[in-house]
Predict the 3D structure of the following.
Amino acid sequence: MLDLAFVRENLPNVEEMLRRRGQDPAVLARFREIDDKRRQLITQSETLKAQRNKASEEIAKLKKAGQDASAQMEATKQLREQGDTLEKQAGEIDQELRTLLAGIPNMPHESVPLGHSADDNKEVRKWGALPQFSFTPKPHWELGEQLGILDMERAVKLTGARFAVYWDLGARLERALANFMLDLHTKDHGYTEVLTPYMVNSNSMYGTGQLPKFADDLFKIDKHDLWLIPTAEVPLTNLYRDETVDAARLPMSVTGYTPCFRSEAGSYGKDVRGIIRQHQFQKVELVKFTRPEDSYAQHEELTRNAEMVLQKLGLHYRVMLLCTGDMGANASKTYDLEVWLPGQQLFREISSCSNFEAYQARRANIRYRPEGSKKSEFVHTVNGSGLAIGRTWLAILENYQQADGSVIVPEALRPYMGTDRIVAKKF
């Protein structure tokens, strides 16, 4: 959420930002109207309080002099009733203003390119070389079925579409990737591992920006104020909701491995084959809490941490700087890591690393107190996938497939897998 005073004082800039993000700036007209009404109510309320205070002084003087003060007391009662009405109206106005603010996206960083869609994103760098094959590489859904490690049909029987069952070395590969990523981030990159609940309340979803805008993309638990998490970003960030953290601890870096649940409400007909887009998938998430002046350096570091997973696995990828029209509403700047999938002959996003500046911290009320200051400030939050397990899983199958149908296990995963090759087996 943007700061109210900032929006009020920078309306032309906010309006231009909305246009650059491809959104209708008409919401600002209502913002001006509500904000003006709010300030009018505050002025009226303060005037009434002053009148009540003056009347109370007169009543005290009259009573002290033994005179009748009933008229002044009746007037004070009416002023109090008027004040209560104004306070109720002000509360309703405040709530509408907060709702409007919550719907205004973050201000993009000056380095973010202008654009309307993914076609306008900017390639920052590439790593590795395109894998070469003496045969036509297959997509992961064919490989997984032939190897007997990916079972989509039984997943449909158990639950429905957009779920998967992993068998034997397919299940072990999933677990190996999670352990490898967590070990890398905790031992080499300095993150603290955290195991969080997989369900959170509405306040947590609001704090990281999923509610109210993206409710249709979430799974709600009936009869409870609980939601299945769409990413570990939600519980990890909300660990410090409504807290003032010790400035000496910043930056704080945490990581967590969780299942993620998404309804994919707007993705009907997209990526229906394989495990690219699932209702349930697993992911290792990286979250940083930083001082404002350090957040962009920490954003670069977190992105490099995520890249290191791909490098150690020997997977060709590119880093894309998202344009204003393709970037998420909460973010000020986002890098997408896109891994090459030879079976599909395309790059596919495997991690999205974003700096939210104070946008999430303001919603979740996460603060710190700078040394020597009596006033607290909002931290900046940075996060990204480190990485999405399912997409890393399928990237390994497609990039390390062999002519005989087997899949070579990347060297970094062999201690976790206990084998150097995945071969066909039926269950």
User: Anything to note?
Assistant: The chain has two domains: 4-102, 118-422.
